[in-house]
Amino acid sequence: MSKKKKIKKPLHPLMVYFLLIIITVVLSGVLKLLDVQSTFYQVKDISLELLPRTEVIKSLFNLSGIKYIFTSTVSNFANFTVLSNLIILLMGISIMDKSGFLQTTITLTTKKLKKRTVTFFFVLFCILASVFGDLSYLIFIPLGALLFYYGKRNPAIGIIASFAALSCGNAINVIFTSTDSGLLNYTLQAIHTIKGSYEIKTTAFILIMLVAVLLVAYIITVVTEGIIAKKLPKYEFTESELEEDIVTKDEKKGMIYACSSAFIYLIIFIYSIIPNLPLSGALLDNSQVRYIDKLFSVNSFFSNGFVFIVTLLFIILGLFYGIGVKTIKNHHDFCDNLGHSLDGIGNMLVSIFFASTFISIFKQTNIGNVIVGAIASFISNSNFVGLPLIVVIFVGVAISTLVLPSSISKWAILAPSVIPIAYNSEISAEFTQIIFRFAESCTINLTPILAYFIVYLAFLEKYNQSDKRIRLIDSIKYQIPYSIIIGFSLLVLLLIWYIIGIPMGVSVFPTVS
User: Fold this and answer.
1) Is 505 helix (H, G, I), strand (E, B) or coil?
2) Is residue 33 part of a domain?
3) What predicted TM-score, i.e. pTM, was given to this entire model?
4) Which domain range does residue 221 map to?
5) Residues 6 or more apart in contact with residue 257 via CB below 8 angstroms
6) Which of 108, 170, 221, 466 is most buried (most C-beta within 10 Å)?
7) pLDDT of 346-395, one tens digit each?
8) Residue 511 pairs with which residues in a beta bridge?
Protein backbone atom coordinates (compact mmCIF):
# COMPACT_ATOMS: atom_id res chain seq x y z
CA MET A 1 0.00 0.00 0.00
CA SER A 2 1.25 3.44 -0.90
CA LYS A 3 1.55 5.86 1.92
CA LYS A 4 -0.38 9.07 1.62
CA LYS A 5 1.81 12.11 1.57
CA LYS A 6 1.13 14.39 4.50
CA ILE A 7 0.26 17.95 3.58
CA LYS A 8 2.22 20.45 5.59
CA LYS A 9 0.05 23.15 7.07
CA PRO A 10 1.52 26.66 7.08
CA LEU A 11 2.51 28.13 10.41
CA HIS A 12 -0.36 30.04 11.99
CA PRO A 13 0.25 33.83 12.12
CA LEU A 14 -0.20 33.74 15.90
CA MET A 15 2.61 31.19 16.17
CA VAL A 16 4.77 33.44 13.98
CA TYR A 17 4.20 36.32 16.40
CA PHE A 18 4.93 33.98 19.31
CA LEU A 19 8.21 32.93 17.67
CA LEU A 20 9.06 36.59 17.02
CA ILE A 21 8.55 37.25 20.74
CA ILE A 22 10.89 34.38 21.68
CA ILE A 23 13.49 35.45 19.10
CA THR A 24 13.35 39.07 20.28
CA VAL A 25 13.81 38.10 23.93
CA VAL A 26 16.74 35.77 23.19
CA LEU A 27 18.30 38.24 20.74
CA SER A 28 18.15 41.03 23.32
CA GLY A 29 20.11 38.83 25.73
CA VAL A 30 22.74 37.94 23.14
CA LEU A 31 23.18 41.54 21.96
CA LYS A 32 23.42 42.76 25.55
CA LEU A 33 26.07 40.12 26.26
CA LEU A 34 28.02 41.35 23.23
CA ASP A 35 27.61 44.94 24.49
CA VAL A 36 26.03 46.09 21.23
CA GLN A 37 25.31 49.82 21.30
CA SER A 38 25.34 52.88 19.09
CA THR A 39 26.45 56.47 19.61
CA PHE A 40 25.02 59.38 17.66
CA TYR A 41 24.47 63.11 18.08
CA GLN A 42 21.57 64.73 19.85
CA VAL A 43 20.68 68.41 20.12
CA LYS A 44 20.72 69.95 23.58
CA ASP A 45 17.52 72.00 23.85
CA ILE A 46 18.81 75.19 25.46
CA SER A 47 22.32 75.64 24.04
CA LEU A 48 21.58 73.92 20.69
CA GLU A 49 24.85 72.01 20.98
CA LEU A 50 25.35 68.64 19.31
CA LEU A 51 26.18 66.22 22.08
CA PRO A 52 26.87 62.47 21.78
CA ARG A 53 24.21 60.09 23.00
CA THR A 54 24.57 56.33 23.43
CA GLU A 55 21.73 53.83 23.04
CA VAL A 56 22.20 50.36 24.55
CA ILE A 57 20.28 47.10 24.30
CA LYS A 58 17.95 46.25 27.19
CA SER A 59 18.02 42.52 27.79
CA LEU A 60 14.76 40.73 28.53
CA PHE A 61 16.52 37.37 28.64
CA ASN A 62 16.86 37.48 32.41
CA LEU A 63 14.72 37.48 35.55
CA SER A 64 13.84 41.18 35.38
CA GLY A 65 12.95 40.80 31.71
CA ILE A 66 10.64 37.88 32.41
CA LYS A 67 9.02 39.90 35.19
CA TYR A 68 8.45 42.77 32.77
CA ILE A 69 6.77 40.48 30.24
CA PHE A 70 4.45 38.90 32.80
CA THR A 71 3.52 42.16 34.54
CA SER A 72 3.05 44.35 31.47
CA THR A 73 1.42 42.05 28.91
CA VAL A 74 -2.17 42.53 30.12
CA SER A 75 -1.83 46.30 30.56
CA ASN A 76 -0.15 46.66 27.15
CA PHE A 77 -3.03 44.80 25.53
CA ALA A 78 -5.66 46.80 27.40
CA ASN A 79 -3.95 50.09 26.51
CA PHE A 80 -3.27 49.13 22.89
CA THR A 81 -5.17 51.92 21.12
CA VAL A 82 -5.65 49.81 18.00
CA LEU A 83 -7.96 47.50 19.96
CA SER A 84 -10.34 50.05 21.49
CA ASN A 85 -10.46 52.30 18.43
CA LEU A 86 -11.13 49.36 16.10
CA ILE A 87 -14.05 48.08 18.17
CA ILE A 88 -15.63 51.54 18.39
CA LEU A 89 -15.24 52.27 14.67
CA LEU A 90 -16.53 48.84 13.67
CA MET A 91 -19.82 49.68 15.41
CA GLY A 92 -20.25 52.66 13.10
CA ILE A 93 -19.24 50.66 10.01
CA SER A 94 -21.60 47.88 11.14
CA ILE A 95 -24.71 50.03 11.06
CA MET A 96 -23.74 51.57 7.71
CA ASP A 97 -23.24 48.10 6.25
CA LYS A 98 -26.20 46.29 7.80
CA SER A 99 -28.69 49.07 7.04
CA GLY A 100 -27.69 48.93 3.38
CA PHE A 101 -26.17 52.41 3.24
CA LEU A 102 -22.73 51.24 2.09
CA GLN A 103 -24.06 48.97 -0.64
CA THR A 104 -26.30 51.71 -2.03
CA THR A 105 -23.53 54.32 -1.83
CA ILE A 106 -21.02 52.07 -3.57
CA THR A 107 -23.55 51.16 -6.26
CA LEU A 108 -24.43 54.81 -6.96
CA THR A 109 -20.82 56.02 -7.08
CA THR A 110 -19.07 53.16 -8.87
CA LYS A 111 -21.63 51.42 -11.11
CA LYS A 112 -20.67 53.30 -14.29
CA LEU A 113 -16.94 53.54 -13.55
CA LYS A 114 -14.18 51.22 -14.73
CA LYS A 115 -12.53 48.98 -12.15
CA ARG A 116 -9.18 50.78 -12.51
CA THR A 117 -10.85 54.17 -12.03
CA VAL A 118 -12.57 53.02 -8.84
CA THR A 119 -9.27 51.67 -7.52
CA PHE A 120 -7.40 54.89 -8.35
CA PHE A 121 -9.84 57.21 -6.59
CA PHE A 122 -10.09 54.92 -3.57
CA VAL A 123 -6.29 54.74 -3.30
CA LEU A 124 -6.00 58.51 -3.72
CA PHE A 125 -8.57 59.05 -0.98
CA CYS A 126 -6.66 56.69 1.34
CA ILE A 127 -3.44 58.64 0.76
CA LEU A 128 -5.09 61.98 1.44
CA ALA A 129 -6.82 60.52 4.54
CA SER A 130 -3.43 60.18 6.22
CA VAL A 131 -4.03 63.72 7.46
CA PHE A 132 -6.16 62.03 10.14
CA GLY A 133 -3.18 59.99 11.33
CA ASP A 134 -3.14 56.30 12.15
CA LEU A 135 -6.91 56.24 12.62
CA SER A 136 -7.26 56.09 8.83
CA TYR A 137 -6.06 52.45 8.91
CA LEU A 138 -9.02 51.43 11.03
CA ILE A 139 -11.50 53.22 8.77
CA PHE A 140 -10.31 52.41 5.26
CA ILE A 141 -9.10 48.81 5.57
CA PRO A 142 -12.61 47.49 6.45
CA LEU A 143 -14.23 49.96 4.01
CA GLY A 144 -11.80 48.86 1.28
CA ALA A 145 -12.89 45.25 1.77
CA LEU A 146 -16.58 46.22 1.48
CA LEU A 147 -15.95 48.46 -1.55
CA PHE A 148 -14.53 45.55 -3.53
CA TYR A 149 -17.02 43.06 -2.08
CA TYR A 150 -20.01 45.09 -3.24
CA GLY A 151 -18.18 45.64 -6.52
CA LYS A 152 -18.31 41.85 -7.02
CA ARG A 153 -14.54 41.51 -6.63
CA ASN A 154 -12.27 39.80 -4.11
CA PRO A 155 -12.36 41.90 -0.90
CA ALA A 156 -8.69 41.02 -0.32
CA ILE A 157 -7.78 43.30 -3.24
CA GLY A 158 -9.32 46.24 -1.40
CA ILE A 159 -7.59 45.28 1.87
CA ILE A 160 -4.16 44.98 0.25
CA ALA A 161 -4.54 48.15 -1.82
CA SER A 162 -5.86 50.19 1.11
CA PHE A 163 -3.03 49.09 3.40
CA ALA A 164 -0.45 49.92 0.72
CA ALA A 165 -2.00 53.35 0.16
CA LEU A 166 -2.39 54.12 3.86
CA SER A 167 1.12 53.04 4.83
CA CYS A 168 3.11 54.13 1.75
CA GLY A 169 1.02 57.27 1.53
CA ASN A 170 1.22 58.02 5.25
CA ALA A 171 4.35 60.13 4.72
CA ILE A 172 3.05 61.80 1.57
CA ASN A 173 0.33 64.41 1.73
CA VAL A 174 -0.36 67.78 0.18
CA ILE A 175 -1.88 68.87 3.49
CA PHE A 176 0.59 69.69 6.29
CA THR A 177 -0.17 67.06 8.96
CA SER A 178 0.42 66.87 12.71
CA THR A 179 3.26 64.41 12.06
CA ASP A 180 4.86 66.89 9.65
CA SER A 181 4.62 69.52 12.36
CA GLY A 182 6.38 67.27 14.87
CA LEU A 183 9.11 66.43 12.35
CA LEU A 184 9.54 70.10 11.50
CA ASN A 185 10.39 70.87 15.12
CA TYR A 186 13.28 68.39 15.04
CA THR A 187 14.38 69.67 11.63
CA LEU A 188 14.52 73.24 12.90
CA GLN A 189 16.29 72.17 16.06
CA ALA A 190 18.97 70.38 14.02
CA ILE A 191 19.49 73.14 11.43
CA HIS A 192 19.70 75.79 14.15
CA THR A 193 22.90 74.16 15.40
CA ILE A 194 24.45 75.45 12.16
CA LYS A 195 22.31 78.44 11.22
CA GLY A 196 20.22 79.94 13.98
CA SER A 197 18.17 82.20 11.70
CA TYR A 198 16.92 79.36 9.46
CA GLU A 199 13.13 79.33 9.04
CA ILE A 200 10.84 76.76 7.42
CA LYS A 201 7.28 77.49 6.32
CA THR A 202 4.51 74.91 6.28
CA THR A 203 4.08 75.59 2.53
CA ALA A 204 7.67 74.45 1.83
CA PHE A 205 6.67 70.96 0.62
CA ILE A 206 3.40 71.49 -1.24
CA LEU A 207 4.57 71.19 -4.88
CA ILE A 208 6.77 68.10 -4.57
CA MET A 209 4.17 66.45 -2.34
CA LEU A 210 1.43 67.04 -4.91
CA VAL A 211 3.51 65.29 -7.57
CA ALA A 212 4.35 62.44 -5.15
CA VAL A 213 0.70 61.91 -4.15
CA LEU A 214 -0.43 61.52 -7.77
CA LEU A 215 2.59 59.36 -8.63
CA VAL A 216 2.10 56.99 -5.69
CA ALA A 217 -1.67 56.75 -6.29
CA TYR A 218 -1.01 55.82 -9.92
CA ILE A 219 1.66 53.24 -8.99
CA ILE A 220 -0.54 51.57 -6.36
CA THR A 221 -3.43 51.41 -8.87
CA VAL A 222 -1.24 49.83 -11.57
CA VAL A 223 0.30 47.31 -9.15
CA THR A 224 -3.11 46.44 -7.66
CA GLU A 225 -4.80 45.83 -11.01
CA GLY A 226 -1.80 44.46 -12.89
CA ILE A 227 -0.21 42.23 -10.23
CA ILE A 228 -2.23 41.76 -7.03
CA ALA A 229 -5.70 41.25 -8.59
CA LYS A 230 -4.26 38.59 -10.91
CA LYS A 231 -2.43 36.74 -8.12
CA LEU A 232 -5.39 36.38 -5.79
CA PRO A 233 -7.88 33.53 -6.27
CA LYS A 234 -11.36 34.22 -7.60
CA TYR A 235 -13.77 35.11 -4.82
CA GLU A 236 -16.89 32.91 -4.69
CA PHE A 237 -20.17 34.80 -4.48
CA THR A 238 -23.65 33.34 -4.05
CA GLU A 239 -26.23 33.78 -6.80
CA SER A 240 -28.07 36.45 -4.80
CA GLU A 241 -24.81 38.37 -4.25
CA LEU A 242 -24.09 38.32 -7.99
CA GLU A 243 -27.46 39.82 -8.89
CA GLU A 244 -27.26 43.28 -10.40
CA ASP A 245 -27.72 46.00 -7.81
CA ILE A 246 -30.55 48.38 -8.68
CA VAL A 247 -31.14 51.43 -6.52
CA THR A 248 -34.85 51.73 -5.70
CA LYS A 249 -36.88 54.84 -4.87
CA ASP A 250 -36.88 53.90 -1.18
CA GLU A 251 -33.10 53.56 -1.21
CA LYS A 252 -32.76 56.98 -2.85
CA LYS A 253 -35.06 58.39 -0.17
CA GLY A 254 -32.86 56.74 2.47
CA MET A 255 -29.80 58.38 0.93
CA ILE A 256 -31.49 61.78 1.15
CA TYR A 257 -32.30 61.18 4.84
CA ALA A 258 -28.74 60.01 5.55
CA CYS A 259 -26.95 62.79 3.65
CA SER A 260 -29.18 65.53 5.07
CA SER A 261 -28.64 64.45 8.67
CA ALA A 262 -24.90 63.97 8.11
CA PHE A 263 -24.68 67.43 6.50
CA ILE A 264 -26.19 69.07 9.59
CA TYR A 265 -23.84 67.09 11.84
CA LEU A 266 -20.79 68.07 9.76
CA ILE A 267 -21.75 71.77 9.72
CA ILE A 268 -21.85 71.80 13.53
CA PHE A 269 -18.61 69.81 13.71
CA ILE A 270 -16.72 71.97 11.18
CA TYR A 271 -17.83 75.16 12.91
CA SER A 272 -16.38 73.75 16.13
CA ILE A 273 -12.89 73.51 14.61
CA ILE A 274 -12.81 76.96 12.97
CA PRO A 275 -10.94 79.46 15.16
CA ASN A 276 -11.82 83.10 15.85
CA LEU A 277 -15.54 82.99 15.12
CA PRO A 278 -18.36 83.57 17.63
CA LEU A 279 -18.70 80.46 19.83
CA SER A 280 -16.41 78.51 17.46
CA GLY A 281 -13.20 76.57 18.05
CA ALA A 282 -14.59 74.57 20.96
CA LEU A 283 -12.72 71.43 19.86
CA LEU A 284 -9.31 73.13 19.43
CA ASP A 285 -6.30 73.43 21.71
CA ASN A 286 -5.80 77.19 21.47
CA SER A 287 -2.51 77.05 23.39
CA GLN A 288 -0.78 75.84 20.19
CA VAL A 289 0.58 78.09 17.43
CA ARG A 290 0.10 76.07 14.24
CA TYR A 291 -3.49 75.23 13.32
CA ILE A 292 -2.66 71.56 12.70
CA ASP A 293 -1.31 71.37 16.27
CA LYS A 294 -4.46 73.00 17.60
CA LEU A 295 -6.34 70.12 15.98
CA PHE A 296 -4.10 67.19 16.89
CA SER A 297 -2.22 68.16 20.07
CA VAL A 298 -2.42 65.94 23.14
CA ASN A 299 -4.83 68.34 24.86
CA SER A 300 -7.06 68.93 21.81
CA PHE A 301 -10.71 67.89 22.23
CA PHE A 302 -10.76 67.17 18.49
CA SER A 303 -7.81 64.79 18.71
CA ASN A 304 -8.99 63.01 21.85
CA GLY A 305 -12.54 62.61 20.62
CA PHE A 306 -11.92 62.02 16.92
CA VAL A 307 -12.68 58.29 17.05
CA PHE A 308 -16.08 58.97 18.57
CA ILE A 309 -16.70 61.89 16.18
CA VAL A 310 -16.15 59.65 13.13
CA THR A 311 -18.09 56.74 14.65
CA LEU A 312 -21.05 59.01 15.40
CA LEU A 313 -21.00 60.22 11.78
CA PHE A 314 -21.12 56.61 10.57
CA ILE A 315 -23.97 55.81 12.97
CA ILE A 316 -25.97 58.83 11.78
CA LEU A 317 -25.52 57.81 8.13
CA GLY A 318 -26.53 54.21 8.77
CA LEU A 319 -29.39 55.04 11.14
CA PHE A 320 -31.16 57.64 8.99
CA TYR A 321 -30.66 55.58 5.85
CA GLY A 322 -32.16 52.58 7.66
CA ILE A 323 -35.12 54.68 8.79
CA GLY A 324 -35.66 55.87 5.22
CA VAL A 325 -35.66 52.38 3.66
CA LYS A 326 -37.25 50.76 6.75
CA THR A 327 -34.34 48.35 7.39
CA ILE A 328 -34.28 49.92 10.87
CA LYS A 329 -37.83 49.95 12.26
CA ASN A 330 -37.18 50.14 16.00
CA HIS A 331 -34.45 50.37 18.63
CA HIS A 332 -33.98 46.58 18.56
CA ASP A 333 -32.95 46.72 14.88
CA PHE A 334 -30.65 49.64 15.63
CA CYS A 335 -28.88 47.86 18.52
CA ASP A 336 -28.56 44.60 16.60
CA ASN A 337 -27.02 46.42 13.62
CA LEU A 338 -24.35 48.01 15.81
CA GLY A 339 -22.76 44.63 16.46
CA HIS A 340 -22.97 43.24 12.90
CA SER A 341 -19.27 43.73 12.03
CA LEU A 342 -18.20 42.48 15.45
CA ASP A 343 -19.48 38.96 14.74
CA GLY A 344 -16.59 36.50 14.68
CA ILE A 345 -14.13 39.10 15.93
CA GLY A 346 -12.60 36.65 18.42
CA ASN A 347 -9.73 35.62 16.13
CA MET A 348 -8.97 39.26 15.45
CA LEU A 349 -8.77 40.05 19.17
CA VAL A 350 -6.38 37.17 19.76
CA SER A 351 -4.22 38.36 16.86
CA ILE A 352 -4.13 41.88 18.31
CA PHE A 353 -3.13 40.44 21.69
CA PHE A 354 -0.09 38.65 20.26
CA ALA A 355 0.84 41.63 18.07
CA SER A 356 0.63 44.10 20.96
CA THR A 357 2.78 41.82 23.11
CA PHE A 358 5.44 41.50 20.40
CA ILE A 359 5.52 45.24 19.69
CA SER A 360 5.81 46.19 23.38
CA ILE A 361 8.60 43.64 23.95
CA PHE A 362 10.52 44.78 20.86
CA LYS A 363 10.27 48.42 21.97
CA GLN A 364 11.41 47.52 25.48
CA THR A 365 14.59 45.85 24.17
CA ASN A 366 15.59 49.14 22.46
CA ILE A 367 16.90 47.19 19.45
CA GLY A 368 15.20 49.58 17.03
CA ASN A 369 16.77 52.70 18.56
CA VAL A 370 20.22 51.11 18.57
CA ILE A 371 19.99 50.17 14.87
CA VAL A 372 18.70 53.61 13.85
CA GLY A 373 21.41 55.22 15.98
CA ALA A 374 24.06 53.18 14.17
CA ILE A 375 22.64 54.28 10.81
CA ALA A 376 22.65 57.93 11.95
CA SER A 377 26.27 57.57 13.02
CA PHE A 378 27.23 56.00 9.68
CA ILE A 379 25.61 58.84 7.71
CA SER A 380 27.18 61.59 9.84
CA ASN A 381 30.65 60.03 9.50
CA SER A 382 30.36 59.42 5.76
CA ASN A 383 32.05 61.55 3.13
CA PHE A 384 29.19 61.44 0.65
CA VAL A 385 27.93 64.66 -0.96
CA GLY A 386 25.28 65.58 -3.50
CA LEU A 387 23.45 62.76 -5.26
CA PRO A 388 25.29 59.89 -3.49
CA LEU A 389 24.40 61.47 -0.12
CA ILE A 390 20.71 61.63 -1.10
CA VAL A 391 20.81 57.92 -1.99
CA VAL A 392 22.60 57.00 1.27
CA ILE A 393 20.10 58.96 3.40
CA PHE A 394 17.18 57.43 1.48
CA VAL A 395 18.42 53.85 1.92
CA GLY A 396 19.36 54.46 5.57
CA VAL A 397 15.89 55.79 6.42
CA ALA A 398 14.19 52.95 4.51
CA ILE A 399 16.12 50.37 6.57
CA SER A 400 15.49 52.29 9.80
CA THR A 401 11.74 52.22 9.20
CA LEU A 402 11.70 48.41 9.30
CA VAL A 403 12.81 48.43 12.95
CA LEU A 404 11.38 51.79 14.08
CA PRO A 405 8.16 52.68 12.20
CA SER A 406 7.39 55.78 14.30
CA SER A 407 8.28 58.83 12.20
CA ILE A 408 8.81 61.16 15.17
CA SER A 409 10.98 58.73 17.16
CA LYS A 410 13.07 57.92 14.10
CA TRP A 411 13.62 61.52 13.02
CA ALA A 412 14.51 62.53 16.59
CA ILE A 413 17.53 60.21 16.25
CA LEU A 414 18.39 60.87 12.61
CA ALA A 415 17.82 64.63 12.23
CA PRO A 416 20.79 65.90 14.34
CA SER A 417 23.14 63.73 12.24
CA VAL A 418 21.51 63.95 8.81
CA ILE A 419 20.51 67.64 8.64
CA PRO A 420 24.00 69.12 9.29
CA ILE A 421 25.85 66.86 6.84
CA ALA A 422 23.19 67.50 4.18
CA TYR A 423 23.31 71.26 4.74
CA ASN A 424 27.10 71.24 4.48
CA SER A 425 26.60 69.50 1.13
CA GLU A 426 24.35 72.40 -0.01
CA ILE A 427 21.13 70.34 0.47
CA SER A 428 18.40 72.38 2.14
CA ALA A 429 16.85 71.25 5.42
CA GLU A 430 13.42 71.14 3.74
CA PHE A 431 14.65 68.80 1.02
CA THR A 432 16.35 66.59 3.62
CA GLN A 433 13.04 66.20 5.45
CA ILE A 434 11.39 65.28 2.14
CA ILE A 435 14.06 62.61 1.55
CA PHE A 436 13.22 61.23 4.99
CA ARG A 437 9.47 61.21 4.34
CA PHE A 438 9.76 59.58 0.92
CA ALA A 439 12.20 56.93 2.16
CA GLU A 440 10.09 55.78 5.10
CA SER A 441 6.99 55.56 2.91
CA CYS A 442 8.43 52.70 0.83
CA THR A 443 9.16 50.20 3.62
CA ILE A 444 6.71 50.96 6.43
CA ASN A 445 4.19 48.56 4.88
CA LEU A 446 6.64 45.64 5.24
CA THR A 447 7.19 45.61 8.99
CA PRO A 448 4.98 43.72 11.50
CA ILE A 449 6.32 46.13 14.13
CA LEU A 450 3.85 48.67 12.74
CA ALA A 451 0.87 48.51 15.10
CA TYR A 452 -1.69 48.53 12.29
CA PHE A 453 -0.06 45.72 10.34
CA ILE A 454 -2.04 43.22 12.43
CA VAL A 455 -5.32 44.90 11.37
CA TYR A 456 -4.33 44.37 7.75
CA LEU A 457 -3.45 40.72 8.41
CA ALA A 458 -6.62 40.10 10.45
CA PHE A 459 -8.93 41.41 7.71
CA LEU A 460 -7.12 39.34 5.09
CA GLU A 461 -7.86 36.29 7.22
CA LYS A 462 -11.48 37.37 7.79
CA TYR A 463 -12.24 37.40 4.06
CA ASN A 464 -10.10 34.36 3.24
CA GLN A 465 -12.11 31.63 1.45
CA SER A 466 -9.16 29.37 0.71
CA ASP A 467 -8.43 26.18 2.64
CA LYS A 468 -4.95 27.56 3.17
CA ARG A 469 -4.55 30.04 6.00
CA ILE A 470 -3.12 33.48 5.20
CA ARG A 471 0.46 33.45 6.47
CA LEU A 472 2.33 36.44 7.83
CA ILE A 473 4.86 36.02 5.02
CA ASP A 474 2.01 36.09 2.48
CA SER A 475 0.75 39.42 3.75
CA ILE A 476 4.27 40.85 3.41
CA LYS A 477 4.71 39.36 -0.09
CA TYR A 478 1.60 41.17 -1.28
CA GLN A 479 3.21 44.47 -0.23
CA ILE A 480 6.67 43.92 -1.74
CA PRO A 481 5.77 44.99 -5.33
CA TYR A 482 4.38 48.25 -3.98
CA SER A 483 7.52 48.90 -1.91
CA ILE A 484 9.99 48.20 -4.71
CA ILE A 485 8.26 50.28 -7.38
CA ILE A 486 7.30 53.16 -5.06
CA GLY A 487 10.77 53.25 -3.49
CA PHE A 488 12.53 53.33 -6.86
CA SER A 489 10.11 55.91 -8.31
CA LEU A 490 10.32 58.28 -5.34
CA LEU A 491 14.13 58.06 -5.28
CA VAL A 492 14.27 58.90 -8.99
CA LEU A 493 11.83 61.78 -8.38
CA LEU A 494 14.10 63.15 -5.65
CA LEU A 495 17.22 62.91 -7.81
CA ILE A 496 15.54 64.58 -10.80
CA TRP A 497 14.11 67.33 -8.59
CA TYR A 498 17.54 67.95 -7.08
CA ILE A 499 19.30 68.04 -10.46
CA ILE A 500 16.76 70.37 -12.09
CA GLY A 501 16.48 72.51 -8.97
CA ILE A 502 12.84 73.52 -9.33
CA PRO A 503 10.95 74.79 -6.23
CA MET A 504 9.60 72.20 -3.78
CA GLY A 505 7.04 74.63 -2.46
CA VAL A 506 6.60 78.37 -1.99
CA SER A 507 10.07 79.90 -2.61
CA VAL A 508 11.87 76.77 -1.33
CA PHE A 509 14.47 74.85 -3.34
CA PRO A 510 16.34 71.53 -2.94
CA THR A 511 19.68 73.30 -2.56
CA VAL A 512 20.73 75.93 -0.04
CA SER A 513 21.66 78.45 -2.71
Assistant:
1) strand
2) no
3) 0.92
4) 13-17+49-500
5) 320, 321, 323, 324
6) 170
7) 888 888 999 999 999 999 999 999 999 999 999 998 889 999 999 999 99
8) 427
